[in-house]
Amino acid sequence: MNAFAPKCPSTLQSPLVARETRRRRAAWTYAFVAGERYARLAIPTPWSNAGDDLHSALIESLAPLRQGDTVMISEKVAVLLTGRAVPIDSCRPGRLAHVLARAVRPRPGSRGLSVPEKMQFVLGEVGYPRLLVAALASAVTRPFGFAGVLYKVAGSVARDTDGGRPPYEDRVCPPLRRDDATELCAALDDLLGVGVAVVDLNDYGGSVRGVSRRALPASILLGALADNPLVQRSTSTPFGIVWPDTLSVPAASSASTPEWA
């Protein structure tokens, strides 16, 4: 039996899947971590909605999978499709949230906590005293060229809360707790038969929220995904695959595409 036999349900094994596999081959990109090459594939999908099911979306999008794969899932989409996102209209901003939101200077292409509803949500999560201290620290240090102090002092909820902009302008997506992310990865590992990781990536860095037992280690994933291969915002690629390229291309080969189709 082929050691890399697909692990997805037999109903997905068809000529259509084979053609899709060949089409995807050209989309592989690569990264080197500690001298080893890793192949990455971002998977385009339709835009996900809050009523969609994460399990179904993965099965439909990721076939075929092979032993050695680690499936990566955008944290925002994991939150959205597991019912953890909060309707933004339930976060009614008070005066303080409006004042603090106006003082936020988000990075280009981001809104951060400049959205009053997100600021109100974070106030409720981290507490008014801590966020006020964070805002004061930011105001004092900004003239000296320090950036991101508010998020460093206020903590991960302030830094990692997402949503409030298209295509999810109607939702606030809080970060997954590491225990919840690890539990979700374990359940999806059992479903898919391969490793699973929930990742929070952007063009400025990222983190690995949780990994399953068959996934690549978080330290390897951080290096392999440092350039944010999912991109996501404009490309609708919330899922992806990472695997050690030694599984698909012999060490002496100069091939640029894994021979897995």
TrEMBL record:
Gene3D superfamilies: CofE-like
Domain of life where this protein originates: Bacteria
UniProt-recorded name of the protein: F420-0:Gamma-glutamyl ligase
